[in-house]
Amino acid sequence: MMLRGMGFDNTTSLYVASGKIYNAEKYMTPLRELFPLLQTKETITSPEELAQFKGHSSRLAALDYTVCLRSEAFVMTQGSNFPHFLMGHRRYLYGGHAKTITPDKQKMVLLFDNPDIRWDRFRHLMQDIRRHSESKGFGFRKHSGSIYNLPMPDCMCQQAES
Question: In which region does residue 96 sit, left (phi positive, over 0), alpha (psi from -120 to 50) or beta (all else)?
Answer without folding.
Answer: left
